[in-house]
Amino acid sequence: MRGPQSFENPLCAQTDPEIFFPEGGHNLGKQIKAICGSCEHQVECAEWGLKHERHGVWGGLSEYERRTIRRRRNIIVETIPVEVFLAKTFPRLGDSNYQGNSTT
After folding, report:
1. What are the boundaries of each domain within the chain?
2. Which listed residue, 3, 19, 49, 73, has the most CB atoms within 10 A of its CB?
3. How far apart are CA 26 and CA 63, in angstroms?
4. DSSP structure class, residue 59
């Protein structure tokens, strides 16, 4: 399954990302539903959110909506170990020659 970072021209990328992380996790405005409902990646994004994301709006589904669907479909969120996340996000940290921000 492709992750959202590989979607071509998703509508959410043209919008302030903070609206996809509403306070309380389930109070979605019409604007978010309209954006996701018009996006060609909605179904794939929603499936990604069900399997990989605990927070935010994914494919027009709130945190609460995804929890409900997960229970019904017996889906467990796939998380990755912190060290794997850090290695993918900050590859230089694994380099034994990396000195950080050292000026020496």
Report:
1. 4-94
2. 49
3. 6
4. T
User: For residue 61, which of 43, 77, 78 has the smallest C-alpha distance?
Assistant: 43
pTM for the model stands at 0.69
Inform me whether the pLDDT recorded for 60 exceeds 60: yes
In angstroms, the CA 21 to CA 35 distance is 14
CA torsion angle 38 39 43 47 (round to 10): -130
On the CB side of 22, CA atoms within 13 Å amount to 17
Q: Are 48 and 59 in contact (CB under 8 A)?
A: yes
Give per-residue pLDDT as tens, 84-93: 656 665 665 5
Q: Which of 101, 75, 104, 103 is nearest to 90 (CA)?
A: 101
